[in-house]
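Please produce the structure of this protein holding iron/sulfur cluster.
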Amino acid sequence: MALEGPSEAARAEARLGLYVHVPFCAVRCSYCDFSSGSLSAAKVERYLEAMAREASLRAPLAAAHAFSSVFFGGGTPSALSARHFARLDRLLRDAFTILPNAEVTLEANPETVREPLLEAWANAGVNRLSMGAQSFDPRELARLGRLHDAARPAAAVQLARAHGFERLSLDLMFGFPGHSAGTWSATLDAALALDPGHLSAYCFIPEPGTPLGAKVRSGAARLPSAEQQADLYEMLVSRLAAAGYGAYETSNFCRPGRECRHNLVYWLRRDCLGLGPSAHGLWRGVRYGNRYGLDEWAECLAAGRECADRETETERSRADEILMLGLRLGVGLAADDHAPEAWGTVERRYAAAFERALAEGRIEATSWGVRVASRHRFVADDVIAWLMAEAERGSARSKQRAPDADLTALGVAP
Ligand code: SF4
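Below is the modeled complex.
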């Protein structure tokens, strides 16, 4: 049975992230609401010009820093030609310092993985590929609107390995309309047969505005029940554990040492610059989210304006984020993962809520902090919501007590 993780080494290596959003897809999957549109030479040109502007706009912030991870996400980063990808990589490396041993991940759709691109990615320092397989069942792939067939992920993995890519991850999806334990079991078999170091598996969410989400919302398609989805998750965790994959985050599993450093930057709430339409960043206590669409993002930058909504953190928002992100990790919350001042805000806001949650068995104590017990991991978000509500109730109670204290000080019985 694999340890859950993430390991101390992986947490220490996740220091500073650079996220690059590539907003193009050949077709739109039926469940997806990400910022993405069709690919054309004119749009890619517009994107690369705007990306150069955003990189030089944000570069001064990071002038004294080196990034420990880069993540090309999308959309479909693998939809860019080798020439366009090399141009994107060059403009980023001109603007930012990236550590020589940085983890550099690229999201690739299996049908796009071809030799010239693999060479371009390797030349640009990409050392980790994350492939969107989603399912290995042909009918499910069609229902999800995926372009590749069930055999293509295996071919893509083989080709990537032949080009020296050792760090490979597969994305899977479960709990969508029509999903069954039988097809899930077969998909897990097929995924494990490819022996990736890392697997991500997300439960389907019926996003508004997506074809499959709209069908679920109108009743035209039925989701598996919450119990059935929990059973599918249970199957996932136990099958992966038996194969040596630790559940180091609610939806992420890996062999020892194969954690995604870049995602740990988010989950441990370390600084990250985000570039591209819809990209989000956190830098020195300020969160920002770029304009969602390619055109509005590019227009904003062409006009010399910053293209993002900003929000400065408060003690409370920082404590809430540390809790929400950290309790999804296998190891849970660890004081040592955070600056003493940041950890202090968690203790002040959540100490009483932790006590009650421990007494009720919702969380368990560790020698480094607290965590959600592995048997409750699928409902970790419910546990987190309970803790946040409990902290709110606690602060409302202490506000109510404050006038009493004043009255007592004045010698008036409450
Ligand atoms: S390939 Fe990825 S980003 Fe593009 S539509 Fe499908 S799920 Fe969305």
